[in-house]
Each structure stands twice: as C-alpha cells, then as structure tokens.
C-alpha cells in the first residue's frame, strides 16, 4: 500500500528482507550440530518488517509455568519424536504457543545453537512472518507477545552486562536489555539465552559493531561464534562425563 511505502522511503520491505536473507544464509549451520548427544530443543526467531525496519517477535512465559515463569523468550521448546528436525520443532511450538501457522513462516536458516540451564541443545531457527500476524497466545504457556526493533540489540537504550558462570564453570557475558514498549506501556527485560540469540541475529544481519562488548571476533563472526559454542559444549560435556 502507498501508506506503508511512504513511511519507509529509504528501504522498501522487499529490499530489507532480501538483504537480511542474504546475510543469514551465509551463517546457516543446517544440521552441523544436530548429532551432538544432548537433549534437543529449538526456538523460532520470527522476523517481520514494520515501517521499513526489521522487528523481532518475543513472548513472555506464563506465570503458571514451572520453569522460568514470567521470563521473556522466543516461541519454542523441546523436540518431540515426531519432529523431523529443529525446524519442525520450532514451527510446531510457535503454532502451539502463539497460533502461528507453519505455512505462514518463511524459514531462512538455523544459526549456531546455544545450551540452556537444563543442558538442552537449543537451535535458533530464523524465519520471516507477515507484519500483520495477530498472535493468539496459549494462556497456559504465554502471557504476552510483543515486538522489538532488531537494531535495539546492537544499539540499546537500556543495557547491562552480567558476568555469568555456567554450571560447568565456563565464564561468559550475559546480555540484559530493558525495552520500553510503547504499545503495551510497559518494560520488558530480555536476558539470558534469548538475549544471546537476539544479539547474534542482529550482528549477523547488520554487520555493525554494537555499542556494548560482545565475546565474538566481529571480523570473523562465523568462526568465532562456532568456536565459542564448541568451547561451551566442551565444558558442559566434560561435566556430563564426570557425572556418569
């Protein structure tokens, strides 16, 4: 429509998407890490274009959940036997949690995984969704759904870094963002693995230096992100072996 074009003279929606697709495909890890012997989980990083800018859809976990109630996260969860791969898991969970139909997602890639507190191998799956998507949150799992401009994760207004030691003694930086949402008239705290994935996604797509420290070599993001993950995995796996 003419209206939406006017609000974004510098970058029509298609150009914004195409440039993001191109960057993301360079970072697609496919099933490179899928064989690792950890329980599997996946999250969907749903991207949309609003006013010529990329935005990321996030959810708030229901207060009745046992694990991490009230925390901000991406739609996602544990793999089930019927899932073909991590993409299936992420799409199935997004449908269950926020009513996003799998055929409404243009899946672009899988990025380097993370490892959560429960030692699940969590694969981030990136996909485009329509900016008109109306979430229907499943109240048992999700209390709210909101969107954040993706560039907030490289140029935040409210940010702090927490030095964080994983249970295996691996020292890492944990990003913590406070996002003041005008639409909901409230502030959301985005941290932990969710913030980690959002930051990496923004670094991949924008290729810019963030206004805060990250533990990547930004001149060699692909290699350093994989190395960081391998070090983290090795520290978890050593501990798993010692627990046997």
TrEMBL record:
It is found in: Peroxisome. Gene3D superfamilies: Nucleoside Triphosphate Pyrophosphohydrolase (3.90.79.10). Its EC number is 3.6.1.77. InterPro entries: CoAse (IPR045121), NUDIX_hydrolase-like_dom_sf (IPR015797), NUDIX_hydrolase_dom (IPR000086), NUDIX_hydrolase_NudL_CS (IPR000059). It catalyses: succinyl-CoA + H2O = succinyl-4'-phosphopantetheine + adenosine 3',5'-bisphosphate + 2 H(+); malonyl-CoA + H2O = malonyl-4'-phosphopantetheine + adenosine 3',5'-bisphosphate + 2 H(+); acetyl-CoA + H2O = S-acetyl-4'-phosphopantetheine + adenosine 3',5'-bisphosphate + 2 H(+); butanoyl-CoA + H2O = S-butanoyl-4'-phosphopantetheine + adenosine 3',5'-bisphosphate + 2 H(+). GO terms for biological process: coenzyme A catabolic process; nucleoside diphosphate metabolic process. One of its GO terms (cellular component) is peroxisomal matrix. Its cofactor is Mn(2+); Mg(2+). The keyword Acyltransferase does not apply. One of its GO terms (molecular function) is manganese ion binding. It comes from the Eukaryota. Residues 38-172 form the Nudix hydrolase domain. Keywords: Hydrolase, Magnesium, Manganese, Metal-binding, Peroxisome, RNA-binding. It is an enzyme of class 3 (hydrolase). Its main location: other. Monomer. Belongs to the Nudix hydrolase family. PCD1 subfamily. Fatty acyl-coenzyme A (CoA) diphosphatase that hydrolyzes fatty acyl-CoA to yield acyl-4'-phosphopantetheine and adenosine 3',5'-bisphosphate. Cleaves CoA, CoA esters and oxidized CoA with similar efficiencies. Preferentially hydrolyzes medium-chain acyl-CoAs and bile acid-CoAs. Has no activity toward NDP-sugars, CDP-alcohols, (deoxy)nucleoside 5'-triphosphates, nucleoside 5'-di or monophosphates, diadenosine polyphosphates, NAD, NADH, NADP, NADPH or thymidine-5'-monophospho-p-nitrophenyl ester. This is Peroxisomal coenzyme A diphosphatase NUDT7. It comes from Mionectes macconnelli.
């Amino acid at each position: 429509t003419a209206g939406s074009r006017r609000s974004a003279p510098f970058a029509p929606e298609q150009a914004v998407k195409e440039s993001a697709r191109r960057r993301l495909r360079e970072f697609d890890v496919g099933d490179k890490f899928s064989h690792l012997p950890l329980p599997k989980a996946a999250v969907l990083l749903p991207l949309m274009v609003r006013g010529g800018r990329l935005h990321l859809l996030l959810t708030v976990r229901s207060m009745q959940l046992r694990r991490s109630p009230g925390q901000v996260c991406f739609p996602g969860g544990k793999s089930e036997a019927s899932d073909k791969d991590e993409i299936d898991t992420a799409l199935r969970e997004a449908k269950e949690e926020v009513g996003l139909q799998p055929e409404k997602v243009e899946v672009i890639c899988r990025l380097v995984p993370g490892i959560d507190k429960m030692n699940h191998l969590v694969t981030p799956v990136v996909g485009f969704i329509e900016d008109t998507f109306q979430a229907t949150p499943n109240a048992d799992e999700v209390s709210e759904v909101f969107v954040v401009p993706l560039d907030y994760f490289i140029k935040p207004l409210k940010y702090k870094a927490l030095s964080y030691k994983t249970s295996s003694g691996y020292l890492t930086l944990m990003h913590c963002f406070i996002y003041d949402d005008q639409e909901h008239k409230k502030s959301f705290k985005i941290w932990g693995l969710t913030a980690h994935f959002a930051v990496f996604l923004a670094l991949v797509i924008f290729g810019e230096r963030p206004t805060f420290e990250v533990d990547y070599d930004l001149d060699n993001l692909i290699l350093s992100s994989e190395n960081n993950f391998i070090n983290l995995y090795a520290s978890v796996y050593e501990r798993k072996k010692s627990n046997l």
